[in-house]
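Board notes, transcribed. Complex of a protein with magnesium ion.
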Amino acid sequence: MPVSESFGRGNGCHSVLVCCFHHSSVSAATKSSVALFSYIYIEPQTIIQVTMSQQQRMGGQPMIILGEDSQRMKDRDAQSHNISAAQAVAESVRSTLGPKGMDKMLVSSTGSITVTNDGVTILQEMDIDNPTASMIVEVAETQEDEAGDGTTTAVSIAGELLKNAEDLLEQDIHPTAVIKGFHLASNKAREEIDNVAYDVDPEDTELLKQVAETSMTGKGAELEKEVLAQLVVDAVQAVTVKDDDGENIVDLEFVNIETQTGRSAGESELLNGAVVSKDPDHDDMPQAAEDASVLLINEAIEVEDTDADASVQLDSPDQLQTFIEKEEEQIKAKVDAIADAGADVVFCQKGIDDLANHYFAKKGIIAVSRAKKSDLSFLREVTGGDVVSDIDSLADATLGSANVEYDESEELFYVEGTGEDPHGVTLLLRGSTDHVVDELERGIGDALDVVAQTVADGRVLAGGGAVEVEVARRVREYADSVSGREQLAVEAFADALELVPRVLAENAGLDSIDTLVELRAAHEDGDETAGLNVFTGDVVDTFDAGVVESAHAKRQAVSSATESANLVLKIDDIIAAGDLSTEGEEPEGGPGGPGGAPGGMGGMGGGMGGMM
Ligand SMILES: Nc1ncnc2c1ncn2[C@@H]1O[C@H](COP(=O)(O)OP(=O)(O)OP(=O)(O)O)[C@@H](O)[C@H]1O
Ligand SMILES: [Mg+2]
């Protein structure tokens, strides 16, 4: 009689494959021993997993359902594999955390180089193909989307949660108890983040500058952080409006970042309106237009291509002349239509024919071809004009209005809106080389996001590990009220939060244990904002010292780290269509055997270890 059997540990763990035994039930020892499964066989409606002993009873007939390269890992093997993969990812970014964090150089398969300190950028540029590791990369990506900063923190906490979880699993605590404990602790931690957050005046420029500076420290932007923090705050304030309830709304869509190589970061500037890194298409075009009507168009100003593949046979030079004249007429008609619509400046996303440029120049119109799509979208905000997709519909379109000026030495246009409600600012970032400006752009992007969050919700936290130690202390207190094995998971969660001050100390060359002991003691004495001064190694009031973070980003880091750790912990069965290891030898015991996990991880850990 067939005996149905669900593999895995049951109790809510994700078991991907449900197997039915047709011959006899299997002993508990056999179930837990993945090594004994030699082949898996599928029947039309059933999946049969055959053990060695069963196979012998079936006359040694192997039954195979998975491809030759497939691998399966179950229970503790699967959990260890996943936890090691996640930890390897977390460890790869740890050394970049904080003001004393170092940068990484990533070289892509095409040879392009990225030098960065930004957690999400590192993980995205790394060639990760382990599935669990990719899930951890998603933590960084979510953090980047939701908060803009704190990606290294989020990933490091996720890795530490899993490391601590593994200790609990080894003590035979069921994964669901760990997951529940982490979930309770995460809720409590976020509640406590709200409790320790300071409500600040969103117009307090000095504090906003401190938030920007904290976010920039350790990044390329740090050396000129005073100038840049001021620019970031000015940019955010320029795009802040109050809604009907008096709440601040910040729309960063109206802040455009342009980069220019050649000068130093300190010479970066904030400009009203847009900057377009382009030249006029023709030398005879004017270089400036005051209070100009601006046409934004995403259709080419060229001879229209025929849809069909046609060939034209010309029998005489006259016919050729007529053909050319027709084409010229078509282009002239387009230029005339644009001039008749009143445009003084044309920004076109596609190409502009040389002849069209000649006519534009004769009419005193500035034309710019192949403008970036993002430039056009931003110009729409700045000038108030529509982006036209068809010259024939010009009559219904609104042209933008702006002062347009070409800067020959910088090779870019300044476009300042002159409409009724001009909005939009451009941060023109400068740096000596491409790599410098790229990293500057990432640092400034983070700072813009956290300053915008602070203006919008007005809540900040003391940085330098202060908030983590305080919240960990409160979560530990809360653990006493949690019954059962979940209590241990809540405590493990608190320990994981303290990873941040530990790593900040480690990266600064300080003793992480001493630092943590000192910090804990200060917090026990009621000093809620005691954090680490990474430059002196002292425990100081980081809020007073101006190390201030956005509360929103920290909340997000805690929740995305917990959710992804829990997702990984809930898996107890991995069935991979291909080889789980990315390199290295075939693990001992064959695919799916106990050696599978270290083999798979060895591949990834080794790969990354080699790179770091
Ligand atoms: N001057 C400072 N002294 C002490 N700690 C600081 C200082 N400036 C920043 N920090 C701390 O550094 C941490 C942030 O480091 P970092 O910016 O490298 O990582 P992240 O924000 O988590 O990730 P990423 O910026 O890569 O997205 C925060 O915990 C912050 O409190
Ligand atoms: Mg940061």
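The longest strand covers residues 288-297. The radius of gyration is 31 Å.
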